[in-house]
Amino acid sequence: MVVHRTARAGLSVTRAQRRRLLALLVSGGDVWAAVLELNAWRRARQDLPLASYQELCRELAASGSGTFGELDSVGARSVLRRYSDAWFAAAQRRREGDRSARFPRRRRALMPLRWYHGHFTLTGRMLRIAVARGRPPLWVRLNRDLPYPEEQVRSVTLLYDVGRLWVDITAEVPVACYPAGQEPDPDLVAGVDLGIIHPYAVAGPDGQGLLVSGRAIRAEHRMQLTDRKARARAVARRAPKPGQKGSRRWRHYRRRQRLAEARHRRRVRQAQHEAARTVIGWAVARRVGTLAVGDPRGVLNLEAGRRHNQRTRDWRIGHLITALKDKAEAAGISLQLVDERGTSSTCPACATRIPKPAGRVLTCPGCQFTGHRDLSAAASIAARFGGGITPVIPAGVTHRRAGAHLPGVAPSRRDPRRRAHDRSARGSPGRHRPAPPAPPRLARESLVTSARSLSTVPKYRRVH
Ligand SMILES: [Zn+2]
Hints:
With 464 residues, this protein is of the alpha+beta class.
């Protein structure tokens, strides 16, 4: 039993290596463009398009070596594979009646390239990328250690994203094995409620609960929004009109903007992965073998106003679910999606509908049950899945925080919220001290100010 997992690493490269890698990606784009053009010609001649991988490979072989610069045939074939997959996926969707599905037809300057096992060498952080025969070898250095052993790595993908070169490393990871008596038990069900304040609220058997706080992620979203607005305000006057060519300064501004957006996306992604890992660790420690996850995606398409729409977009619910699903799979835990409609306004003890509480505490007027709103929702989800849990007031709630690396957590200069004056201090920073006395004014400065005041006074009188 194995699962495939992908990790991304940045590349530390010299200027010459960067040039060569970018040239490879450009060659990948050339292969893509060549296929598009080939099929455009065939279409004009009313021939059938070439879409199968084998046929495209035959065309590539016929083009001879050296057509696409330093790109070797394996890297070029990965572009053909991508084209073929995209073409058949579109054809499938069109057969099913989706008229908006489009065949690939847009050119791209840089195309990601993939090499499979046996066509690259990975030793420690050093990666040898395959190039065409006769070219000097291309060794590059990854900027971090990979979470997988070298022998499990199955493919590497070279790509360019927002000004940087990256490598996606895909590995075959065996599903976790447990000693006898410690493996997850499929009959132990935990309900998972997905939220914004708590990305994951988990209610397990025996009244055990886990709350992962997402306040740091929310703060990151807010600060990002503030920064973005401030940047937009600062450059609004210099923005080119529609149809006008942007200046070099404008290009630099757009680049900085894209970098900031990409950093923000990476931060949120990382925090959500950490949160999912916390949930899986908690479930493994309690031998929970089934996670019933409430899927709220049915309600997300409802128009709910500008602010709420922004909030649900920031939530990235699909990523929360896939991150949890992938990690559950690798840990040997099964994950089931459950309709979560109404679970946040249902009493988990007597199962009656009650008005959704505004705060975090749910109180049932019928049976006097009081508990955490998100945990109660999670308990109701588990009950809906038929886990046979008696939802009780959680006996032991574990609190965890997602995004330990986010700037809202440790004191940072961008964080506008009030906080203690240094990292080690726990109390208040104390009362405000008076400002230090101003340095004595220079004689000349006082002369200038008095002269100015003399000159303005008569004017003022003359007006009236
Ligand atoms: Zn009740």
